[in-house]
């Protein structure tokens, strides 16, 4: 299977290790029909990465083939991750909202540097 045009990666900065088994939701916010529902779901692998998404329904198959311009959100459900590690967190989830231009590139990578009391992100490559 080829890699999705939108990928993400979580590093736990308190352990210096990838954050595995974190549930992630991808939402396309520019479409009023799907603005409140995720279009795809995934779980980070042992390397803390999401390379491919599971589509919420077949109507969203465009995300696998061609990106649309507009506003997207990736929600990282961090509470379960920290609970499994027997650690408290101030952030039960992290939402990263980003905008793709009229002629999007072929690939966008969303890294998340995470601790239980803070996080940081940037546009990856």
TrEMBL record:
Q: Which GO terms describe its biological process?
A: purine nucleobase metabolic process
What GO terms are given for molecular function? Answer: hydroxyisourate hydrolase activity
Q: Which residues form the signal peptide?
A: none
Kindly list the organism's lineage: Eukaryota, Fungi, Dikarya, Ascomycota, Saccharomycotina
**Which SUPFAM superfamilies did the record assign?**
Transthyretin (synonym: prealbumin)
Quote the InterPro entries the UniProt record gives.
Hydroxyisourate_hydrolase, Transthyretin/HIU_hydrolase, Transthyretin/HIU_hydrolase_d, Transthyretin/HIU_hydrolase_sf
Residue span(s) of domain Transthyretin/hydroxyisourate hydrolase: 1-124
Annotated source species: Pichia californica
Q: Which UniProt keywords apply?
A: Hydrolase, Purine metabolism
Highest taxon, organism lineage? Eukaryota
- Its biological function? Catalyzes the hydrolysis of 5-hydroxyisourate (HIU) to 2-oxo-4-hydroxy-4-carboxy-5-ureidoimidazoline (OHCU).
* Catalytic activity, reaction form: 5-hydroxyisourate + H2O = 5-hydroxy-2-oxo-4-ureido-2,5-dihydro-1H-imidazole-5-carboxylate + H(+)
Keyword Membrane appears in the UniProt entry:
no
Task: Give the multimer and partner information.
Answer: Homotetramer.
Which EC number(s) does the record attach to this protein? 3.5.2.17
Protein name stated in the entry: 5-hydroxyisourate hydrolase
Binding-site residues for substrate, renumbered to this chain? 9, 49, 122
Say which family it is in. Belongs to the transthyretin family. 5-hydroxyisourate hydrolase subfamily.
């Amino acid at each position: 299977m080829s890699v999705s045009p939108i990928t993400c990666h979580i590093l736990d900065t308190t352990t210096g290790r990838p954050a595995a088994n974190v549930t992630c939701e991808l939402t396309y916010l520019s479409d009023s029909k799907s603005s409140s529902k995720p279009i795809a779901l995934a779980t980070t692998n042992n390397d803390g990465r999401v390379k491919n998404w599971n589509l919420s329904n077949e109507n969203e198959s465009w995300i696998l083939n061609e990106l649309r311009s507009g506003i997207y959100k990736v929600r990282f459900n961090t509470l379960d991750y920290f609970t499994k590690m027997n650690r408290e967190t101030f952030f039960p989830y992290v939402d990263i909202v980003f905008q793709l231009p009229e002629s999007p590139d072929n690939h966008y990578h969303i890294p998340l540097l995470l601790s239980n009391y803070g996080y940081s992100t940037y546009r990856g490559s």
